[in-house]
Amino acid sequence: MKSIGSLIAKRLEPFGCIISYNSTSKKQRIPYRYYLLVDEVKYKQNVPKTEYSISMRLSSYILLYYPDLLSLAANNDVIVLSCALNDQTHHIVNREVMEALGKKGIIINVGRGGLIDEMEMVKCLVDGVIGGAGLDVFEIEPGVPEELFGLDKFFFFGLDNVVLSPHAAMVTQGSLDNIAQLALANLTAFFSDQPLISPVRLD
What we know:
This protein is α/β, with parallel strands linked by helices. The chain is about 30% helix and about 15% strand. The chain has helices at about 5-10, 40-45, 70-75, 95-100, 120-125, 145-150, 175-190, and strands spanning about 20, 35-40, 55-60, 65, 80, 105-110, 130-135, 160-165.
């Protein structure tokens, strides 16, 4: 979990979500005020909340960490993807992960389209292997290959368990203002011989 993932989790916290994450390493400190202790076995079995224990404790850093995406999917209801696309994360969400997420599971992808095996996702959505998906990105942009959806290139629009947006999740006034401020801060630092706020790595 890096900057984007942390900001997503911060926005989910007021809704009382049980926040779990997978990352390249376990984070020692993440700024959250509360964490929940839940009898996860009963939770996943849909036992009414009154019949299992939930306790809330004051904290500034505790989240539920899972060392791999498969275990994360098996123990959560929603997966939000916001990581970078590289050789290690290409198709990180495959059919096995979707099956672990389950029939009520939701996948939200605001990262890169290649993080999900789209062909398998379509099958899982149609067959009810997963409950639904919210997609802001696709493997091939801006076009969606016709072979992905069969004869109907707008196949997704026929599914009532899918929400699509045209790779525009970050296009808000606040986000654009932040980008402009960051660019100005980098220029100011550069011309003042100071370290850049967000240097670009060329390796």
